[in-house]
Input
Amino acid sequence: MIAVLSDTHVGDKAKALPIPLLEKLEEINPELILHAGDVTSPEVLETLEEIAPVIAVRGNVDHLSLPEEEIVEAGGMRIGVIHGHQLLSLNAQFLSLKALDMEVDLLVFGHTHRFYFDSFSVYGRRVYLLNPGSPTFPRWDEAGFAVLKPGEEPTVRRVKLW
Output
C-alpha cells in the first residue's frame, strides 16, 4: 500500500500537517509515501519519514533540493511522480503523453489541489493518472490524500480528512 500526497504547503498556506492526516497515515501504515510537490517545508518530509519512506518531487513553490520527477517500481508497475507545473496543461492528453514519455504505467501529479483518478488508452498502452488532491489547501474539493495499491489493475482509494 502506498500513500500519495501533494500540495501540503506547510509554511506558506498551512501552519502544520493536519492531525487527522497523520492519524490516518499511521492507521493505514503504508510501505511508501509519494509526495507530488509543493512540500514547502523540510519538516513535512521529516514528519512523513517517521511513518514510511518518502519519495518527493519539487513543486512550483518549493525551494527544497528535490528532483523535478521520480520513477518508482512497485507491485509490478512503473510509477512516475511529477508536480505538473512543468506541463503546458494538466489535461488528460498532456498527462498521458507525459506518462508515455516517462515510460510509466501510472503518473502521479499535483498542482491543482483536486483529486483525480482515471485511465486512458494511448497508442495502444493503458496509462493511469492520479492526483491525490491536497490535505491542507483543497481547491473546489475536500481535504485528503490517496491510497494506491499498485498492480496490473491498480486500485485507488480516496481518503478524506473530515
Observations:
- The mean pLDDT is 95.
- The two ends are 22 Å apart (CA to CA).
